Amino acid sequence: MNDSLRLELAGISKQYPLVRANDRVDLRVKPGEIHAVLGENGAGKSTLMKIIYGAVQPDEGEIRFNGEPVRITSPAQARKLGISMVYQHFSLFDTLTAAENVWLGLDKSMSLPQVAARIVEVAQAYGLDVDPQRPVHTLSVGERQRVEIVRALLTQPQLLILDEPTSVLTPQAVDKLFVTLRRLADGGTSILYISHKLDEIRALCHHCTVLRGGKVTGEVDPTQESNASLSRLMIGVEPPPLQHRARTAGEFVLHVQGLNLPRQDAFGMDLHDIGFMVHAGEIVGIAGVSGNGQQELMAALSGEDPRAAPAAITLFGQPIGRHSPRRRRRAGLHFVPEERLGRGAVPTLSLAQNTLLTRTEHVSRSGWVDVRRVERMAQDIIARFNVHGGGAGSSARSLSGGNLQKFLVGREISADPKLLIVSQPTWGVDVGAAAQIRGELLALRDAGCALLVVSEELDELFEICDRLLVMAKGRLSPIVPVSEASVETIGEWMSGLWPGAPSTLAGARA
Amino acid sequence: MLKLEARPQPSRLMSGLSPLLALAFTVLIGVGLFVVLGKDPLRGLQVFFVEPVKNLYALSELSIKATPLILIALGLAVCFRSNVWNIGAEGQFVIGALAGGWVAMQAGPHLAWMGRGIVVAILLAGVLGGMAWAAIVALLRDRFNANEILVSLMLVYVAGMVLNYLVYGPWKDPQGYNFPQTITFLPATRIPRLVDGLRAHIGTVIALVAVAAFWIFLFRTYRGFALQVGGLAPLAARYAGFSSRSALWTALLLSGGMAGLAGALEAAGPLGQLTPYVPVGYGFAAIIVAYVGRLHPVGIVLAGILMSMFYIGGELAQSRMALPKSITGVFQGLLLFTLLACDTLVHYRLRWQRKVQAAAAATRGA
Question: A92 φ, ψ to 5°?
Fold first, then answer.
């Protein structure tokens, strides 16, 4: 027994019906240490964290907290011990406000108004913008995560677990979060930092445990490693660098002009005077923190929200603002939404049936579905885009996030679109799948397709885009070629501070 | 403390077997019930499960009960798969019977040119009547976002009032000794029987054709696919571009039409006239049939037959075993209850949570 450790795991194993999620995992975290747990999606990171947090019981192995052997049977008990967690998949009640959600997880020693006041305090101290009175269902993905982080910080934990926390923050906010985390660590709080972002881990963490296939494949000091060596530990090989060739853009495909849309729900975002063009053979990226109007813009472009003035959105010169998604698809506009399960795919239906959502080549004029051909089409997508996890007959929800995303992107790419709009192409997707998806998007661009990509990951946008826009408070910044943009300026623009921006924009939901 | 815990991978085999398991449990509980009532359980089982299928006559009677149940349940299955909760098939059934009955009452020498073709007109009228009644639900839902469960259910009672008004008033048979009933429909309007001497009629054939048609609609047409996506994941339906309004109207008109068809078949078939006793609960029992049949056309056939056996068994149990009429309802209720229980246990498992031990571990840990 080692008394100087905050947390020690020894020989932790967890077997699920189909997969061994953790296989004799050891983990040692010192007080005040920022300890990275690095691994691909499906490497067993989330299961391990759930075991530490008491949400899942290990089959074997021992957990020691501050030197004492413990059996953590519930998250409530974990919190009592001083362990807090920010989940990657949020555990918030949609119908309650942010404050009510936070209050629910506390020990009821504070009244609701006190909690709301504390939230504002903590949020300000750590630069996390959270309005405690807003119902959670009106919050964007990024805003929900901030509620989770604030909730965890309120309990002043000894061990804070953060599962992929930075995916929804601006670069400046990430820097701020790192300052916060370092301050917490200096105060003696241990931090378990789950991520697959190598740069962040190298910049922030003191120690790094690498998981692959449920097993520990390495324990290293990340500051002494390179991205390449870390990624070798994580996935076994280095991902091939993307081929990004400069390319002259062709004719303009999508032209948005003077698009104004009032919000549909009280906490949505109005779109103000949106205007930009996308040409054939280029990728235009929209950066910004989610909740600044991206969802509303995507719905207006995809046709899910057909309220736009007809001429505000034109495709090859044709006004399409009022057209249905199916009509836009027939004109060559395909869309991959941010939510994969429930929007991009029906969770309980098979992959073959899910191809039918957007692909109607094998539906006859009279509405007859050729089931065999649909199945073959699904199989072709599965084979071409390297989708693992069952064939055309397996249900969408049985696939991992990365594989389902490969399938959905593949479904739209193989339709030979003239304009492909992708929202958060690699959100929660493992490194290998993310690299493949980005490669496919570039290949599609090189084939002459116009692409519009919305992402919260700036690295990703800088990697694949030709030109960049930033969205803040329902408005768009000027468009800049990636070669002339820097992470710093884009980060500033995310707060609404671009040249010529209305002064009211300062303080966007960043 | 008992706790339900989701199973990570619900067994597909058990999911399929669940209705059979439910039947087995229903029988078991039924046996217990007979014993408690001091009746011979074997005799009871024989009444419910052997008598209704023991000969051609019994089978013919079974088909008369099963036909409306299956027809209505097919329509409801489409509704429920589309997430449209039509609980008012009983009312649509009554209005279908009224519309079909009205056409039947017009028969006479001046319509002799139609010959037996009038039956087609009767059935068509029934379909339209049921559709019209369901269209009220769709309209209120579409225009005013009125809850379709409440509206469709309340319209059942309105339909009953309309029926009573007509048979006690304008449609009362002048030669009927003031009984609340219409004239007996002319022979030309009678739904053709399958075999002379048995009451089984061509409605059974129509039901079987409908089973095939609904299977094709649900699993082989784009329209059917779109409806089900709307029920399973509304956001995905919007993403794909399937209209939720059109799904609402399609589902309600289809199910209303099927209930109306069943009503017309009943009025011009076994009943032969309209009385206040047209509604006997087929519209409600069909909800159970649809669910026990897993909202699948073939499953609905089996479930429909089973429910009819309960109807007939219940009637026989009254005369042969001196059991109350409510025994039918008890069995139908038992079947739905055990099915829901089986489904729950296929998807969840019961865990006994030892709170004491967890608390002990907590103190040790702290």
Answer: -115, 150
